[in-house]
Design brief:
Length: about 190
């Protein structure tokens, strides 16, 4: 009986508190005066910096379209774009709208990019793990996504894939595997 009384008391208290809220409700939104917004959040610069600001631009990344070919899609990144910032956007995969349109990505879900830089127009992409256990065609699509995206950022001489600093030989749709992959190697994967 004592247990039943305790359960009833806890249930009653929970129901009473369920109707309470700390935020007052109104029928319509209320405007906040600009001078009442704290921390400089409406300012033209980043709060806490010496007039710091960020400018964003759109940058193409290559994902797999509904026909199974590579297709360019725009992503917003800080300017100037770096290879690492653009590849991070690529690794996120297609947006919800693109997914509904049949777009996908062949990049592995656990792809970890340790570092990505461009030196003398050659992109160096250092990954945590090699593409082991994947079919050759999928690796070609992955390399197409990485190489064409890197080309759009400025790696016009190609890319070199490294795993913990060691260069990999990567497959191409035609020809033997190479250490430096160029955008030309993966042109056949593009949607014409």
């Amino acid at each position: 009986m004592r247990r039943l009384t305790s359960i009833a008391a806890v249930t009653g208290a929970a129901l009473a508190l369920a109707g309470c809220t700390l935020v007052p409700t109104t029928k319509k939104p209320s405007a906040i005066a600009p001078h009442a917004v704290p921390l400089g959040l409406l300012g033209h610069t980043i709060p806490g910096t010496n007039n710091g600001h960020v400018v964003f631009i759109t940058q193409p990344v290559y994902i797999v379209d509904a026909t199974g070919h590579l297709s360019a899609s725009s992503r917003i990144v800080p300017r100037p774009p770096t290879l690492l910032s653009v590849l991070r956007e690529l690794a996120l995969g297609p947006t919800a709208i693109e997914t509904e349109g049949g777009y996908t990505s062949d990049l592995p879900a656990d792809l970890t990019i340790l570092q990505a830089v461009i030196v003398h127009h050659l992109g160096y992409i250092d990954l945590a793990q090699p593409f082991t256990g994947l079919r050759r065609h999928r690796i070609e699509m992955i390399m197409g996504q990485l190489t064409l995206t890197a080309f759009a950022v400025g790696a016009t001489s190609g890319v070199k894939i490294l795993v913990n600093g060691t260069p990999l030989r990567v497959p191409r749709p035609t020809g033997p595997p190479v250490v430096i992959a160029t955008a030309r190697d993966y042109q056949s994967l593009l949607n014409a």
